[in-house]
Amino acid sequence: MKKIKLQGFNNLKKQLSFSFYDFVIAPTSEEKQSYIRYINKRYSAKNIIKLLKKIVERIEANILSTSKQNYEPYGASSMILLSDLKCDSVQMHIDKSHITAHTYPDFSEKNDVVSFRVDIDISTCGEIAPLTALNDIFNFFDTDIVVIDYIVRGYTRDKKDRKVYMDHEVNSIKDFIKYETLREFTCKDLILQNDNIWQLKMKRVSFDMEEFFSDETKLDKKQKKQSFKKLLKEIDEIYEAS
Known about the structure:
By secondary structure, the chain is α+β, with helices and mostly antiparallel strands.
C-alpha cells in the first residue's frame, strides 16, 4: 500500500486484543494448587512485563512508564505506557498508547478441568502497527485457544485535508502470523473490511491426552479418558462462545 502523506500527527487508534487459553486436568486440590503455583511463577507480573517490553521493541515504540502487580491467591497485571516517536513530521505528541496484560487462572473444586487465560491489549495511536507483535506473543505462550481482535477507529487527515480512516493494509490477521504457527490451529476468520474490524479465533488441531495430566496423577486409564473427554468438551464450548 502506498504511504499516505498526512497533515500532521496520525490520530488513528489501533486496538489489538488477545485472549489466550490454556487447560490442564487436575482432579485433586493438590494438583490444582500445583498448577496455580506454576502459572503464578511462569506468568508472574515480572515475566509478563518482559514480554510487553519485547512487544514495545517490535512495534518500535518507546517506554514512558511501567507498572506491574501480582495478586493473592493468583493472577497478575502488567502495563506499559508508550510514546510513539516514529512519525517524522512531529517531534512530540499526546501520549495515548499503552499495553496491558491480565492473567485469570480459573478452577473449581468440583471440576477436574482447570483453565488459565491471559488478556493482552495493545492500544496505539500514530504510525505504530501493533499487528507486527503477533509472533512474539505466540512464542511466549502455550495455548489451546486464541481469540484475536483488531479494530481501527477514529480518523486523521491527509495533506489535502481529507479524512483518512485507515492508513495501512489488512486483509486478514492470519497474514501476520507465521505459517508454522497457523498450521497447528483450526481458524475462524471474521473480516469486516468496511468497518475496520478483524477477528481470528484459533483452536489447536490435535491434543495429546497425556500432556494435560501431571506426572503425579492417580487416575487410571479409564478415568483419564473420561476427564479428557470433559476437557475437549470444555475447549469446544469456550472456542464457540468466545
